[in-house]
Amino acid sequence: MSTPNHASEQSLRISAEELRTRLESGEAATLLDARRHKDWEASPDKICGAIHIDPTHFRIDPSWPNDQLTVVY
Prior knowledge:
- The structure is a single chain.
- 26% of the residues lie in helices and 15% in strands.
- With 73 residues, the chain is of the alpha/beta class.
- A three-stranded parallel sheet has the order 2-1-3, with no helix packed on it.
């Protein structure tokens, strides 16, 4: 019998409501906005503190904390 890895033990999806609740409770999170640049620029809706990333050239930045929730949207 194999032992499940850490990622398979947790849901890989989170609702907007759950994320809001977790952030309002003070939980730290890294938020990555993966919209195309033109869509990101045209949108008035941006989450304060989110990091805009290029979805076509995505690379994990080693400076991002790996001990907290990371959400890509």
